[in-house]
Amino acid sequence: MAASKVSYFLDILSKTPAHQNLFVSANQIIQIQRILQKTISPQLAKRCLIGKFSEGILVIYVDSSAIAAKLKHITPSLLKKFGSQVNTIQVIVNNQGYKNAISLSTNYKPQLSQKAAQNLSELVLVIPMSPLRTAVESLLHNCKPDELC
After folding, report:
1. Average pLDDT along the chain
2. Which of 56, 77, 123, 146 has its CA 20 to 30 A from that of 131?
3. Is the whole model's pTM more than 0.85, yes or no?
């Protein structure tokens, strides 16, 4: 029951002008992640992490140069699967960053811009007590202020 309320709230929030771009970007990344998972082998997928998607450039982090070579080899077929939304794929080998991103380290602090922190703080004030509110409060508590994500 609570999950449907959260889904309903997120659906309404996604239609507000102030949040539309965020939801469009999140949905693009989710779509790209699904296509990637369907296109590559499960063994390869476990070693890849979507890093960033902006202006048609998709960044994928991998944990070794061997995985990077395999991914670069299938890049043309990936570009066909992604269609016109992805123009370029950058594969970056990042052993340390990949491992840190996968494991939830207690030293890791997500980063938010001041504007994002302010908007989330305002959101917390207007939504009723719910799992969503608790999650947003936790995000605000665990983020470094004044830095971009």
Report:
1. 81
2. 146
3. no
